[in-house]
Automatic annotation (TrEMBL):
<keyword id="KW-0687">Ribonucleoprotein</keyword>
<feature type="compositionally biased region" description="Basic residues">
    <location>
        <begin position="66"/>
        <end position="81"/>
    </location>
</feature>
<dbReference type="GO" id="GO:0005739">
    <property type="term" value="C:mitochondrion"/>
</dbReference>
<dbReference type="GO" id="GO:0005840">
    <property type="term" value="C:ribosome"/>
</dbReference>
<keyword id="KW-0689">Ribosomal protein</keyword>
<keyword id="KW-0496">Mitochondrion</keyword>
<comment type="similarity">
    <text>Belongs to the mitochondrion-specific ribosomal protein mS33 family.</text>
</comment>
<dbReference type="GO" id="GO:1990904">
    <property type="term" value="C:ribonucleoprotein complex"/>
</dbReference>
<dbReference type="InterPro" id="IPR013219">
    <property type="entry name" value="Ribosomal_mS33"/>
</dbReference>
<protein>
    <recommendedName>
        <fullName>Small ribosomal subunit protein mS33</fullName>
    </recommendedName>
</protein>
<feature type="compositionally biased region" description="Basic and acidic residues">
    <location>
        <begin position="82"/>
        <end position="92"/>
    </location>
</feature>
<feature type="region of interest" description="Disordered">
    <location>
        <begin position="65"/>
        <end position="92"/>
    </location>
</feature>
<dbReference type="Pfam" id="PF08293">
    <property type="entry name" value="MRP-S33"/>
</dbReference>
Amino acid sequence: MPGVAKTATEIARVAARVFGAHLGDGRPSGRKILRAPLIGERLAAYYPKTMAALDPLFTAPDETRRKVKLERLKRRGKGPPKKGEGKRAGSK
């Protein structure tokens, strides 16, 4: 019969194909990690949504504080430079 396997390696190869196993040579292949279920959605669901995402009128106090400080620095001329006017702009 042509469909009958003759050697142990052929039997192992056919069994691996039937049962979805992997015939390796003992070296790490990464299949264990790839076969693991993905956990991204569960991980994202663990953390609560931010207030900004829930309420469009909400402003974070840290963001407000940062903007006020930046405004104060800009009035004194100590704010960040405009694009292309940095410390190394003249050397190019």
